[in-house]
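Bit of a strange request maybe. I'm writing a small parser for structure token strings and I need a real example to test against, not something I typed by hand. Could someone generate the tokens for this chain?
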Amino acid sequence: MQLIQHDEHTARSEQNRIKLRPLAPSRGLIYDRHGVLLAENVPQFRLEVIPEQVGDLQATLEGLSEIIRLDSEDIESFTELRKAMRRFQSIPLRFHLTEAEVARLSVNRHRFKGVAVVPYQTRFYPLGEPLAHTVGYVGRIGTEDRERLSESRYSATTHIGKTGIERHYEDMLLGEVGYEQVESNAEGRALRVLGHVAPKPGANLWLSIDSRLQVAAIAAFEKRPGAAVAIDPQNGEILAMVSLPSFDANLFVDGISRKNYAALTSNPYRPLFNRAVLGGYEPGSTIKPFIGLAGLELGLRTPQDGIRSTGEFYLPGQRQAYRDWLRGGHGWVNLNEALSQSVNTYFYQLAVDLGIDRLSAYTGQFGFGQPTGIDLLGEAQGVLPSREWKQQKIGKTWYPGETVISGIGQGYWVTTPLQLAHALAALSVQGKRFQPHLLRSLQRDFTAEPKPIPPIELTSVPVRDVNNWLAVRDGMVAVMHSPTGTARAHGTGAPYLIAGKSGTAQRVRSSKTQQSNDESLPEHLRNQALFVAYAPAEAPRIAVAVVVEHGLSGSRAAAPVARRIIDAYLGAGNGNAATEAVVLPITDPAAPAPEAPYP
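Reply from user aminoacidic:
Good idea to test on real output. This should exercise your parser:
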């Protein structure tokens, strides 16, 4: 055998003596636009088991549980991974070992063949809750993940991006696996490293998010549920994206406990739900600037054309009244006053004159009823009211009364806060649409500067007459700064002009009040409060859409939130939440996880 089969047995001997051990790459870091670290890697230890090298697995697990904490969730996760992985592969059993546990395992190492304490880098999110929905989180690779992943790319990796930026840019953040040639003895114990191919770290991502603005926006909500999106109208960069309540993303990294997960899923305010991207809301009166512009651009109105608001509007031949919010009406109003005072009658008549086909076609150019294409998975599409949509989804024809209420953002309208901010940004810069995006620049090497990502300009909305757009802008400025503006209280003292529009989306009809804005109603039946605004009105740098759930009134609940966000970004020192006054919360990685993340 030694002479005749020398080559074959030499090769087998070398295979037994020398093993290829994969080396995990460092996951790319995530920063905000100013270099504030949003996702980093911290050193930890985990316990791994190679089933092939373990004699009695059950006895080994029982013996290990006497030395370190092993709960049922650790065992269940380990069992699932065993089914998906090969017997010779190392399978993680426990993450985040304490120093005391590492010491006890080292002393008892001789008792457990095929068991090893392995150093690794775990993900940590310094800000905790404020950016959990946007940055997302990584989690353990599960059975379903294994079925779709490249075995070679993830041979040394235990975690994968599950949500948010972490998931969308997984390929960039992952890096490339490395290898070590390890010489081992007959027992399989490593003796020395013969060769080494270093892993390549993942790319570092620089987001457009301003973390200080994000924290200021959250503070502006004063713990009320809702969402806000702030966007740069000049390039589509997302400056802040808020969904409240939120959660601590660190809870999910190494496996969330059943108790913590139950606290999140049983919370009636749904902290795991990203309202900014997935939440569907009727836009209410925030749609009126777009309807007003449609009337001007399509030649049905001039800015000076007026209508008399008596408090009630009737379609010819119908007895049903469509009411204005002010009993008795607003009198004679043109576009500026109709926007300033949010006069329903003006937009009822304009919607009828437009017809649902033209209304839908024109507003659709701003992106309503379609995903914006933001770099997050699972974005909601919303609903743009139209004959075709109703026939396809409900199987019924369109009625004239539905056109009437479409003019004030009720009925079949559904928008997300992101869609609303995106449309507002296009309105503020006279029709230019940029794809909203979170990735601002990319850094593949620490020795190189981050490389900017150019914005993608979408199809612009055709402009027939720039004066029409300026007329709408002036009406929105009047909302904030004129004596009759519905949000004039929140425009007071601003060192710049703000163009805004309030919206109140009706939840139910009540015998007590037409718009369900009675505080005696149960919270879940109260109106949704919306507000959109951009500033400075003459040269916009920020556009904001705010939704305060069950806030009763847009001008009362959502407008002050929008004002504080704008002030925080533009740095107005008028007692509001200015950027320089914001202190970033820092989560201690050693601190115990909260059992109830959000009241």
